[in-house]
Design a protein that fits this description.
- The chain has 602 residues and is α+β, with helices and mostly antiparallel strands.
- It has helices at residues 2-12, 21-34, 44-60, 64-81, 84-101, 104-120, 124-139, 145-159, 165-178, 189-203, 206-223, 229-241, 245-259, 268-281, 285-302, 304-409, 416-447, 460-474, 496-512, 567-578, and strands at 456-459, 480-485, 491-494, 518-525, 530-537, 582-584, 592-599.
- The strands form two sheets. It has a five-stranded mixed β-sheet with strand order 2-4-5-7-6.
- The protein folds into four domains: 1-163, Serine Threonine Protein Phosphatase 5, Tetratricopeptide repeat; 179-298, Serine Threonine Protein Phosphatase 5, Tetratricopeptide repeat, CATH 1.25.40; 367-451, Helix Hairpins; 456-599, Heat Shock Protein 90.
- Strand 6 and strand 7 form a beta hairpin.
- It is rod-shaped, with a radius of gyration of 55 Å.
- Helix content is 69%, strand content 7%.
- It has 20 helices and seven strands.
């Protein structure tokens, strides 16, 4: 995409080159995308001219990535053709521009360009060290895998000419990792094969090297492209190693046809030296000597020593710029760290304030709960005192009757009729006292969950009929006791004894306040899952203001009533335990109507 942007900018400008713009742009695109060391499709002078021409446009358009790629390309081209001084000047411009724009990728490309000048000056250790610095910079920049692949390609080309096999293997591993087996469409993929073949060749694994070379040439044929000069050079070295000098000479001749079109390029030296070496091995000493002389002429024309000093000075200047850049980066990091620390402190302060507010709310809630517990304790104490007082009153009445009438029975002067009356009164008060004790025990057991419930399935219709029949026999009123239901059968999962206890309590209470008329027990369905029991009487009724009190303990509307005042409280606890609810119908005004619900299923 970046190369395409460069091509697009090139296509929009430059009337001086309008005759064959499309061809030149296509060739420049190929050079940039492949990062070739040699290029037979486009003259080196054209690369330099076009690069210099479009740098201002890229800078104006703020296409900084493309700008530094083009500047690096120009610097690399100067170094490749042997113009080390021009290359150094261009690297200096790249470094200054990167410093001005504070563009870290520019620093990495400047470092790589310095490595290129060392490479073409035959200063391989210095080149490798500088390439390592560039690689370290790229490792700190996200999304730079493409640049890393190009840089590792340069680094491998240089390191493979040396003798450090272990270091070469490290770089080759990194390169192979960046370019997976699936990246066969990547233009740099052919370099991967060439590097691996050269590495195997340096290890002496000739068969492996030959297999990889065959794969590389087959891949080039499949893609419909000419083999890279670098690949042909590796193949020539292989054939020289296996003493197939005829093929090696053919490949060197092919390389000279490509490279000699770029007269004066320092890239020719290694090819010419290898060509001369093979010529010597085949007995063509005269031609070999001529090639050696040409190589020496190129070396002499480069004035390597003078440019070495320039390169070292530029490297030192670049290192100073890099240190300044790192200092600025460190400063920026400190500012970011201060912002992060300040933000963290602010957040912690906010969290602390929130925690304090929550703690205060919890403390207030705890204080309120404590006050509520205190109020409940006081209420419980009052209830306990009231309960004891009521119990004392309720127990004293039958006990007084028992004590008094028992004393009368001891007298011999009373007649049989009086004795019979005393006996009946003692019997009634004994039953009353026993019921009071039983109710207190039931109430206590229900409150503390100690009362046992035996749940089983039973027919509520049959149970209601039995209760009505039993109460009908023991009633002390002229009121008629009825049972009304539209159901033929209703199976409930319940404790039939406890349900019967509730029904008897409600019916007995109704008989006390209904001297005549009727008392009706009705059973119906409130819903599919809930049964509804009602006990309706035509008695005196219960005033609306007293309806909420009657479920309290010892609450009796008629103080003359001999009951304990606990029956309805016990009924309420039983119904709650079963899973229903009990209440008085406030809309019924012709007497009283008690209602309670009962779940049908478990």
């Amino acid at each position: 995409m970046r190369a395409f942007i460069i091509i697009l900018l090139l296509s929009l400008t430059g009337q001086a080159f309008a005759i064959d713009n499309d061809v030149k742009l296509k060739r420049l695109q190929t050079f940039i995308s492949r990062n070739l060391r040699y290029c037979s499709e486009m003259p080196i002078d054209s690369i330099i001219i076009w690069g210099e021409y479009f740098e201002p446009t890229l800078l104006k358009e703020k296409q900084y990535t493309e700008l530094f790629e083009v500047m690096y390309l120009v610097a690399h081209t100067h170094a490749m053709r042997g113009d080390i001084g021009l290359a150094i000047n261009k690297v200096h411009l790249i470094s200054e521009k990167a410093k001005l724009l504070n563009y870290d990728l520019g620093f990495a490309l400047a470092s790589q360009a310095i490595g290129d000048t060392y490479t073409y000056s035959n200063m391989l250790p210095e080149a490798i060290a500088t390439y390592k610095q560039a690689l370290d910079l790229l490792n700190n920049i996200p999304h730079t895998d493409l640049y890393k692949k190009r840089l590792l390609g340069r680094l491998l080309q240089v390191s493979l000419t040396g003798n450090n096999i272990e270091e070469t293997n490290h770089y080759l591993t990194l390169f192979n990792h960046l370019l997976s087996e699936k990246d066969t469409e990547d233009p740099i993929y052919i370099y991967r094969l060439a590097f691996n073949a050269y590495y195997k060749l340096r290890l002496g694994e000739l068969d492996e090297a030959h297999k990889i070379l065959q794969q590389a040439f087959a891949h080039a044929d499949q893609c419909g492209t000419q083999p890279l000069p670098y690949l042909i050079h590796i193949s020539a070295l292989y054939h020289e190693e296996v003493e197939d000098y005829t093929t090696a000479l053919q490949e060197y001749e092919q390389l000279t046809d490509i490279l000699f079109s770029e007269s004066g390029s320092i890239g020719q030296n290694q090819i010419m030296t290898g060509y001369a070496r093979v010529l010597m091995k085949t007995g063509k000493a005269e031609k070999a000597n001529q090639l050696y002389q040409d190589v020496n002429k190129v070396k002499d024309s480069l004035s390597i020593n003078s440019y070495t000093r320039q390169g070292n000075r530029l490297h030192a200047s670049y290192q100073i710029d890099t240190i300044e850049f790192e200092n600025q980066t460190e400063k920026n990091n400190l500012v970011r760290m201060a912002i992060i620390v300040g933000g963290t402190i602010l957040i912690l302060s906010f969290l602390l304030a929130s925690y304090i507010r929550r703690s205060n709310r919890k403390l207030a809630a705890s204080r309120k709960s404590l006050e509520e517990a205190k109020r409940q304790a006081e209420t419980s104490t009052r209830s306990k005192s009231m309960f004891l007082s009521n119990m004392s009153h309720e127990i004293r009445t039958p006990l007084n009757a028992l004590s008094g009438f028992s004393a009368i029975l001891t007298e011999e002067s009373i007649d049989n009729e009086t004795r019979q009356q005393c006996t009946e009164i003692i019997q009634q008060n004994s039953e009353l006292l026993l019921k009071l004790i039983n109710d207190v025990i039931d109430l206590s057991s229900l409150e503390f969950g100690k009362m046992q419930f035996n749940f089983e399935h039973c027919d509520a219709i049959v149970l209601c009929r039995n209760v009505v029949e039993m109460v009908q026999k023991i009633k002390q009123t002229r009121a008629e006791i009825l049972f009304d239901t539209d159901l033929e059968e209703l199976i409930l999962y319940t404790d039939d004894a406890r349900l019967q206890q509730v029904l008897i309590n409600l019916l007995i209470n109704a008989t006390k306040f209904t001297p005549s008329g009727s008392i009706t027990l009705k059973l119906s369905l409130q819903s599919k899952s809930m049964a509804l029991f009602t006990v309706t009487d035509t008695g005196c009724g219960i005033p609306l203001e007293n309806q909420q009190k009657i479920f309290k303990r010892f609450e009796k509307l008629d103080e003359q009533d001999k009951g304990t005042g606990l029956g309805l409280s016990i009924c309420q606890l039983i119904i709650k335990h079963i899973g229903g609810d009990i209440w008085i119908d406030p809309e019924y005004t012709e007497g009283s109507r008690f209602c309670f619900t009962h779940p049908i299923k478990k």
